[in-house]
Write a structure and sequence with these properties.
two-stranded antiparallel sheet; Serine Threonine Protein Phosphatase 5, Tetratricopeptide repeat; two-stranded antiparallel ribbon
Length: about 475
């Protein structure tokens, strides 16, 4: 080894003495792209927003599988045993902060004047998109973890300066500010780009944030009226409405339809996770879409059940031996693809984040609580959802609600309606948490429940890297 090293040194010295010699090279790069100077056009800013959304949903990462691993402890997914491990939501924390980093870098470039040569309306729309995406990410984080570190385009570099957790109230204050700015800046629609967030999406998600702020842990009940007012604005806009047939809601050709307000998007170039994920073994599936049998048994008999739950095949129910070993109901919502696409594992489905049925139910819940009882408008809103679920025909087993109900009974009915209508849309867990009914609605695993389960654990790696972070109660601190 020593001999070889000496020979190599001699060879280098020899080369450096030949006429073409070893001249000192001075590199003069034509340009260097940095986060500060890259974003010079609207298209470049939008690439940052696309990257942010790609953190959340792409073929084999993010919320593929409709978050069934993350939200398995609700009362809908099978085997949600309420044993929440110390690493349960590590991936969710990382991908949401990855999305926020992409957004903040673009917003900082805009703030620094990088797009000053472009029309102010175009720049405003870009700011609105960025603040909308950031608000959505923080809204999801605060419901999972409680108060979190707040990073904006004005924050110091978190790799240099540690940033501690803000309170829940402070986190919601940023969410509210971002959504309000998005409402002011976003257009009513994007005719040629339906996947982008529009003004109605910002109003709808802010209404949902207000509804959450009115419930646990903040319990600031004045927000019920704010939630109802914003939801009503969306309802009165005339832009959105329910699909007439419940079976059309999750069809691929309706994913940008009048009911879907904003979704995690997939297409032929950036596919969703293979739909075999949701299917039983005997269909060549991987069994990831198993449904808790008790939830299936509680589901009212109506067209919606067939549209949302996969409970029989060729006339045989899931309890039949032919289903073995997967004798469980499965999710139907995300299996609405052609046989050809299913066979080749091609999925371009979207996962809805907010749709019009959700807005109607937000309004019904908020208006009832704000008025100490169900108003006719609140009753009408929820009944639109129930009537569509019944196939727009009379169903004595699942009748319309009325204003004769008490405030509490109507509230319970709305939460139950949300469970049926929004099942497997990454929503039920958050309803259980904000209403503080995780234990009540999960009787099979009550022995595993503690109040600490209302928050997910802060990732251990981040606790080690940031000495200002504090772990949530009930989870280990490294």
């Amino acid at each position: 080894m020593k001999f070889q090293a000496i020979n190599l040194l001699v060879a280098i010295l020899f080369i450096c003495t030949i006429p073409v010699g070893c001249k000192k090279l001075v590199e003069k790069p034509i340009a260097v792209n940095t986060p500060e100077n890259f974003y010079q056009t609207p298209a470049q800013v939008e690439s940052a927003y696309a990257a942010a959304m790609n953190e959340l949903y792409t073929e084999w990462s993010g919320y593929n599988g409709a978050g069934n691993d993350l939200f398995i402890n609700d009362d809908q997914f099978f085997n949600g045993d309420l044993n929440i491990t110390s690493s349960h939501a590590d991936a969710a924390w990382a991908m949401h902060y990855g999305a926020i980093l992409n957004v903040n870098t673009a917003l900082k470039a805009i703030k620094n004047g990088n797009l000053s040569a472009f029309d102010s309306e175009v720049v405003d729309e870009l700011v609105g998109q960025g603040r909308f995406i950031r608000a959505y990410n923080y809204f999801t984080l605060v419901r999972m973890f409680g108060g979190v570190p707040l990073l904006t385009e004005d924050s110091p570099d978190p790799t240099i300066e540690s940033i501690g957790r803000s309170t829940v109230a402070e986190t919601y204050a940023l969410i509210e500010s971002d959504f309000l700015d998005a409402i002011a800046k976003l257009p009513d629609n994007w005719p040629d780009q339906p996947g982008k967030p529009a003004k109605g999406a910002a109003k709808s998600l802010l209404a949902k944030a207000y509804l959450t702020m009115a419930t646990a842990p903040l319990n600031e009940t004045s927000n019920y009226a704010k939630a109802a007012a914003l939801a009503d604005e969306v309802m009165q806009s005339g832009i959105y409405h329910l699909e007439e047939l419940v079976g059309d809601v999750f069809q691929d050709n309706h994913k940008y339809g009048p009911e879907m307000i904003w979704s995690l998007n997939a297409n032929d170039f950036d596919r969703a996770t293979d739909q075999h994920t949701y299917a039983p073994d005997f269909l060549g599936g991987w069994g990831g879409g198993k449904v808790e049998p008790a939830f299936e048994q509680s589901f009212p008999t109506q067209p919606r059940k067939k549209a949302y739950l996969f409970t029989e095949y060729n006339g045989l129910p899931y309890t039949d031996p032919s289903w073995s070993p997967d004798n469980y109901p499965f999710i139907q919502k995300y299996l609405n693809v052609s046989a050809e696409d299913y066979d080749r594992g091609k999925s371009v489905l979207n996962i809805p984040i907010i749709r019009y049925a959700d807005v109607l139910l937000i309004y019904a819940e908020a208006a009832n609580k704000a008025n100490s009882g169900p108003t006719q408008a609140a009753v009408d809103a929820i009944n639109l959802v129930r009537q569509r679920a019944n196939g727009n025909s009379n169903n004595p087993g699942y009748p319309d609600l009325t204003t004769a109900m008490s405030e509490n009974d109507f509230d319970d009915a709305v939460i139950q309606e949300r469970s049926f209508e929004l099942c497997f849309e990454m929503d039920r867990w958050f309803d259980l948490v904000r209403k503080r009914i995780v234990k009540e609605k999960n009787p099979t695993y009550q022995q595993n429940f503690t109040d600490d389960d209302y928050l997910f654990p802060i990732p251990e790696l981040d606790l080690r890297l940031n000495d200002k972070l504090v772990q949530n109660p009930g989870y280990p601190t490294p």
